[in-house]
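Exercise 7. Given the encoded structure of a 758-residue chain, write a plausible sequence.
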């Protein structure tokens, strides 16, 4: 009886509990039943599920592809598809996903296709347009389901700078006021952070991630930048001053004292902006407001524009602390220097002044002053004075030093240095004065004192320029790195005069195995042109010159325009071109244009180089070689291979593969153990022309490739020069008397002889 009552009680309890459960279920809100093409409903389903959701079918147009991932959109909202195996060519196609997994990743709703399911693609004519982002986004499920990965168009401002959390903020208007959202934007679209609030129209996808919203930008149209106050300009007073509504404004940061027409430059800028500009006001002194000036849309910064074009020089105000803006202006002025614009167009050709006597004839000009720094003084206001050789004061104002220099200037004390600037002499003063504007306007060497045991060390183009300042002083120089002269105009080191000791390069230049690359010169009125213009009683060695281009009037070579009583050893010219335009004797060569009176060339190479001239004396290695019994010349163990030597003039003696004009009397020098394998146009295979009858002595064991030259003719044929076929030129036994143990090497049957040092 007891057990029967217990069973009845248990059954009754079961009925009661079942009823309660039915009642409780009827009180729980039910999730919507998603339809196959409704992305919003499936997103709500995923949001309201405690675990992953099996999405039976979902479809939309593929509007964005990133790697193998993508975003599909049905016109109302979108959803991210992880590992969807999409290609960029799939974009704008309709995507249908079946039996896939819906999940949350860092709070963002997505389909994880890596967990299985099927995908089909079909052509779609549906055009998905972005929705306007004009509402404050909340964390509600409805907003997340609608706006997470929604394709949007947003109008507003990208705020300047970044937040403490590293975010770039976009501010936009909504129906209830202004809202802000962090943005993610690729540098290929826009470089951020910005210096100023900037108007922008952004297209992208809103995303709820890690508890907050952000906008992933796929395109941006930049509008007006708000940098300061907008004003109408009534009058331009001068190159630094303008007026508006009775107020006077002065430009900060510019020295226009040497500008050609600074007032016109400022007027043009104002006119281009219909007299409406933006100004950043920095300080007011005696009724004048000092400003940075911008275009009406804030996109052009006047001071930046004139500095980068070299139309003005910097005059920074130390009392105005604005590192960000001054850094922009520093970069602008450096651009003028790099491009050699405006004032810097005079840099590469500036006269070298090293004495007060030379200074007198170069007063009120841009020059390079070279001298030893005797003393460096910094006053209490931060201004610097550098005393050079007791006749020049180089001054640096405090503001320019603060923002345009990165090191103490007292490191120059007792050092040889060069300074580029405008040379003046104040009335009543015995000293000359030059104002230095930026740290790249002074340069010296990387080290050394210029002696044989302690040569000047060269690591940069500017340090190479410094050699020109000391060309006549019998100093020693040594490369410590490759030098790339791309973008620099070149002025040859040393030149001709009736007194070569006062003009030509005299010293020792050791390339130390390094290269000087991309040197260019183009002036058809100039003569004595090359890396060196004229070398005299000098030594040049261990140097490679690559990709040089030299165009001049006469006496032009890649290494030197002309040489006297000098030694050139182990110098190699590669992939270069050299040309003389004179309608006469060009004296142009791949290495030296005119080599005379004691010049010695040993183990040198001209490779894959074009040597040309308008008329006579065009040689693959040397345009003219001329020795005497008192000053014999020597060319040995050198070669020219590849490229072409040619004269525009139709003559069989206008050019030659090795040396064109040849003058060596008995006892006047030697040309031995050399070869040429270069195409020749209007000339001879090795030597082109004997200038004076009988002066054809000194040649021995020289060869040229008649197949490559295109001729078997040579003015020294049978007198120390022999024509050979290409095959013969690649055999060791062709080269009688050559030293293949210490000087030469050859890969027989494959290559021409090469020098061991190469």
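Solution.
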């Amino acid at each position: 009886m007891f057990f029967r009552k217990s069973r009845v009680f248990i059954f009754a309890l079961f009925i009661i509990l079942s009823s309660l459960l039915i009642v409780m279920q009827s009180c729980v809100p039910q999730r919507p039943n998603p339809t196959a093409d409704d992305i919003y409903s499936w997103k709500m389903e995923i949001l309201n599920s405690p675990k992953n959701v099996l999405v039976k079918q979902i479809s939309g147009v593929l509007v964005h592809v990133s790697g193998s991932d993508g975003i599909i959109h049905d016109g109302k909202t979108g959803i991210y598809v992880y590992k969807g195996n999409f290609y960029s060519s799939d974009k704008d196609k309709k995507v249908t996903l079946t039996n896939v997994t819906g999940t949350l990743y860092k709070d963002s709703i997505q389909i994880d296709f890596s967990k299985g399911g099927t995908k089909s693609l079909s052509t779609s004519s549906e055009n998905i347009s972005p929705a306007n982002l004009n509402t404050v986004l909340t964390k509600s499920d409805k907003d997340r389901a609608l706006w997470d990965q929604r394709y949007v168009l947003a109008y507003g401002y990208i705020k300047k700078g970044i937040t403490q959390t590293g975010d770039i903020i976009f501010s936009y208007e909504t129906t209830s006021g202004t809202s802000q959202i962090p943005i993610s934007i690729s540098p290929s679209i826009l470089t951020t952070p910005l210096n100023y609030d900037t108007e922008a129209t952004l297209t992208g996808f809103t995303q709820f991630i890690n508890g907050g919203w952000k906008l992933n930008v796929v395109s941006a149209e930049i509008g007006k930048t708000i940098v300061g106050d907008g004003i109408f300009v009534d009058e331009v007073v001068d190159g630094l001053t303008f007026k508006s509504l009775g107020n006077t404004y002065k430009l900060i940061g510019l020295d226009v004292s040497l500008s050609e027409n600074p007032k016109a430059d400022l007027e043009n800028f104002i006119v281009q902006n219909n007299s409406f500009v933006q100004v950043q006001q920095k300080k007011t002194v005696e009724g004048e407001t000092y400003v940075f000036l911008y275009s009406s849309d804030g996109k052009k910064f006047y001071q930046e524009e004139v500095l980068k074009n070299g139309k003005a020089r910097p005059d920074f105000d130390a009392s105005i602390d604005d590192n960000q803006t001054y850094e922009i202006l520093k970069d602008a002025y450096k651009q003028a220097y790099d491009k050699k614009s405006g004032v810097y167009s005079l840099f590469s050709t500036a006269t070298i002044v090293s004495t007060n006597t030379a200074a007198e004839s170069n007063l009120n000009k841009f020059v390079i002053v070279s001298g030893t720094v005797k003393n460096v003084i910094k006053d209490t206001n931060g201004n610097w004075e550098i005393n050079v050789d007791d006749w020049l004061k180089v001054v640096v104002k405090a503001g320019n030093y603060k923002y345009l220099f990165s090191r103490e200037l007292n490191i120059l004390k007792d050092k040889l240095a060069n300074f580029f600037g405008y040379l003046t002499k104040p009335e009543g003063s015995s000293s000359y004065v030059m104002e230095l504007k930026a740290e790249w306007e002074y340069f010296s060497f990387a080290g050394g004192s210029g002696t044989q045991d302690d040569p000047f060390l060269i690591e940069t183009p500017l340090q190479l320029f410094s050699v020109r300042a000391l060309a006549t002083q019998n100093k020693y120089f040594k490369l410590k790195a490759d030098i790339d002269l791309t973008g620099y105009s070149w002025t040859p080191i040393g030149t001709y005069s009736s007194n070569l000791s006062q003009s030509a390069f005299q010293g020792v230049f050791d390339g130390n195995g390094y290269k000087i690359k991309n040197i260019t010169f183009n002036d058809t009125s100039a003569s004595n042109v090359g890396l060196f213009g004229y070398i005299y009683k000098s030594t040049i060695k261990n140097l490679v010159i690559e990709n040089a281009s030299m165009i001049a009037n006469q006496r032009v070579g890649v290494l030197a325009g002309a040489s006297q009583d000098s030694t050139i050893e182990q110098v190699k010219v590669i992939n270069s071109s050299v040309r003389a335009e004179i309608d006469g004797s060009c004296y142009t060569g791949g290495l030296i244009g005119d080599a005379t009176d004691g010049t010695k060339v040993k183990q040198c190479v001209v490779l894959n180089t074009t040597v040309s001239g308008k008329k006579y004396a065009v040689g693959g290695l040397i345009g003219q070689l001329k020795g005497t019994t008192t000053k014999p010349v020597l060319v040995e163990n050198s070669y020219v291979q590849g490229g072409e030597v040619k004269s525009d003039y139709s003559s069989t003696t206008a050019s030659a593969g090795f040396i064109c004009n040849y003058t060596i009397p008995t006892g006047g020098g030697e040309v031995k153990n050399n070869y040429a394998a270069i195409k020749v146009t209007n000339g001879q295979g090795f030597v082109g022309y004997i200038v004076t009858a009988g002066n054809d002595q000194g040649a021995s064991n020289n060869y040229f490739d008649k197949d490559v030259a295109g001729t078997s003719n040579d003015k020294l044929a049978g007198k120390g020069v022999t024509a050979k076929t290409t095959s013969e030129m690649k055999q060791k036994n062709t080269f009688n008397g050559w030293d293949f143990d210490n000087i030469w090497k050859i890969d027989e049957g494959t290559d021409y002889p090469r020098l061991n040092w190469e």
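Remark. DSSP finds ten helices and 60 strands in the chain. Students should compare their own answers with the one above.
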